[in-house]
Write a structure and sequence with these properties.
Blueprint lengths: L2 H23 L5 H28 L2
Helix pairs in contact: 1-2
Amino acid sequence: MNRFYIFIIRAILGAAFGVFITRFFYPGTNPAYMAGLGVFLVGMAYVMEYWRGRKADKSK
């Protein structure tokens, strides 16, 4: 799988989990907050991937 497909999968899952989490904990919130949470989740996925890769490189 190339990086674009991975991004699309992460974006879809980030959006879905952002909507689910926001609707579950704050049912009456603004849709902009849902989108913000989705962007945050996707961004954190990339930060964690970078951090894991950097850690693996140090152990070699």
